[in-house]
């Protein structure tokens, strides 16, 4: 498992020590910590180390030359950068000899909430720009597509940046401009540092840039990205703190908005219950459950009448189809506020699909989430086959874990994945990391194989409904980004890759 943070951790292999070096366990090879981790202040109290920008004479440039010529096994490149290079070369097919970023599409679909985020970031960016003007630096704010909305900096650097279209209304997503601070931050979770020859396009090797994305606190989808770039000059040592502070402020406002939306969903739920409606639940725009009554809680595998207001700790339903329905309904309702829908989903209590009615709930003109009534249809639009229904005979089973002297009974949706450590099995759950009561990963994989869990590696079993993203590695191996508060990444072995692709429909 790889902790998907700037401070990387690989259980069973080693940890990032206070001196900024890998401390190996079990014969793992030691390697220096990434400059990105040091730069963003993820080591101990040491000073941030920001080396001068390489313009193409070091080992990274040599690795870049080999990689653009088709070589897969290159040395001296940080893993997060190499993953980005793979995306640029194989998925997006970006020309590494591109000399400027393309112009962005003129169409804008920004919501009011997104506009508020852009405005807040703009005010913060203008303040930071005064600090980098003397360092050949500029500050940019871009939207979720990588389109630059505004640029700040001294006139000379702004003019130089414009030569590469590092300017307003150009597009700096990875799919158009390759590895760069803005585009790569939109692809990953956490701050990103890209310097010199780490950029995919050679024309941008003279720049050092650091970016961080602001993400929706409910869906985790990117809304905007804040970026600082310096021309042939090291980034200020406090850049990481600037970016983190700016995002923390903006995320704080989004969390407040999410709590207010949850309160509106709970009020709509109470009104539905007052009208005698049963088997009703309120879900947010990402399909996580805010509150459910006793019948809906039983069907969805979540606690009954237990509000979950905080976006980070909402309930995960054991019905993946219902999550897909909610996500589909979100996309429709954002375009048509009058939209309502109905479909059918399979539950673990019946052999036949049950009808489901979906009605959006709005708060101050913005979509807060949906009321979902199980066992009832609606006069609204039927959902198409794009919201699939998959038969499931999943029984209401529990996984038993141990915490101190107590046995903990976990619902299956609470378990994100399991990792073996010798004879012990550790469960990564919504309640934290717990040791499984039964030893042996083989036994756990066999017991849960028909309940949506899959063996993906000799050391890992994952809950398929908790996979949030998929990344491809250096040799086309897969990494699963799990849906949890710690942003864990689980590797997929080559032997298990075909089964994972089949299970996920890849």
From TrEMBL:
Domain HTH LytTR-type: 404-506
PROSITE patterns cross-referenced by the UniProt entry: HTH_LYTTR (PS50930)
Any one Pfam family match given in the protein's UniProt record, by short name: LytTR
InterPro entries noted in UniProt: GAF-like_dom_sf, LytR-like, LytTR_DNA-bd_dom
Keywords: DNA-binding
Domain of life: Bacteria
GO molecular function, one term: DNA binding
Record-given protein name: DNA-binding protein
Natural source organism: Pseudonocardia adelaidensis
Taxonomic lineage: Bacteria, Bacillati, Actinomycetota, Actinomycetes, Pseudonocardiales
């Amino acid at each position: 498992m790889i902790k998907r943070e700037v401070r990387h951790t690989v259980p069973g292999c080693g940890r990032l020590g206070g001196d900024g070096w890998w401390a190996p366990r079990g014969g793992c090879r030691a390697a220096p910590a990434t400059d990105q981790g040091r730069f963003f202040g993820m080591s101990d109290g040491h000073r941030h180390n920001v080396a001068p920008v390489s313009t193409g004479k070091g080992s990274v440039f040599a690795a870049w030359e080999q990689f653009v010529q088709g070589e897969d096994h290159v040395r001296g490149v940080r893993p997060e950068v190499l993953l980005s290079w793979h995306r640029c070369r194989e998925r997006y097919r970006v020309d590494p000899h591109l000399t400027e970023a393309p112009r962005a599409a003129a169409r804008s679909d920004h919501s009011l909430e997104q506009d508020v985020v852009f405005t807040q970031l703009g005010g913060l960016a203008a303040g930071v720009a005064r600090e980098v003007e003397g360092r050949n630096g500029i500050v940019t704010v871009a939207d979720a597509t990588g389109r630059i909305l505004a640029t700040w900096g001294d006139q000379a650097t702004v003019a130089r940046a414009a030569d590469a279209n590092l300017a307003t209304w150009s597009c700096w997503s990875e799919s158009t401009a390759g590895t760069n601070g803005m585009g790569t931050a939109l692809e990953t979770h956490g701050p990103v540092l890209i310097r010199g020859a780490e950029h995919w396009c050679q024309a941008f090797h003279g720049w050092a840039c650091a970016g961080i994305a602001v993400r929706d606190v409910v869906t985790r989808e990117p809304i905007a990205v804040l970026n600082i770039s310096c021309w042939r000059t090291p980034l200020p040592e406090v850049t990481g703190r600037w970016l983190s502070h700016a995002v923390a402020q903006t995320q704080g406002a989004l969390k407040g908005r999410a709590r207010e939306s949850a309160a509106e969903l709970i009020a709509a739920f109470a009104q539905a219950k007052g009208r005698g409606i049963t088997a009703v639940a309120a879900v947010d725009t990402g399909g996580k459950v805010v509150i459910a009554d006793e019948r809906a809680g039983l069907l969805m595998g979540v606690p009954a009448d237990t509000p979950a207001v905080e976006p980070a700790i909402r309930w995960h339903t054991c019905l993946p189809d219902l999550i897909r329905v909610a996500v589909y309904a979100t996309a429709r309702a954002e375009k048509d506020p009058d939209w309502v829908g109905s479909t059918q989903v399979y539950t673990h209590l019946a052999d036949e699909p049950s009808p489901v009615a979906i009605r959006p709930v709005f708060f101050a003109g913005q979509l807060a989430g949906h009321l979902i009534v199980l066992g009832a249809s609606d006069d609204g639009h039927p959902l198409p086959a794009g919201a699939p229904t998959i038969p499931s005979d999943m029984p209401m089973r529990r996984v038993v874990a141990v915490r101190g002297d107590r046995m903990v009974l976990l619902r299956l949706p609470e378990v994100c994945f399991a990792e073996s450590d010798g004879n012990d099995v550790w469960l990564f759950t919504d309640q934290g990391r717990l040791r499984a009561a039964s030893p042996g990963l083989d036994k756990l994989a066999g017991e849960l194989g028909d309940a949506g869990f899959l063996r993906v590696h000799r050391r890992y079993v994952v809950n398929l409904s908790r996979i949030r993203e998929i990344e491809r590695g250096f040799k086309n191996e897969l990494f699963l980004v799990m849906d949890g508060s710690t942003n864990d990444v689980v590797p997929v072995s080559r032997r298990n890759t075909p089964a994972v692709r089949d299970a996920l429909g890849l």
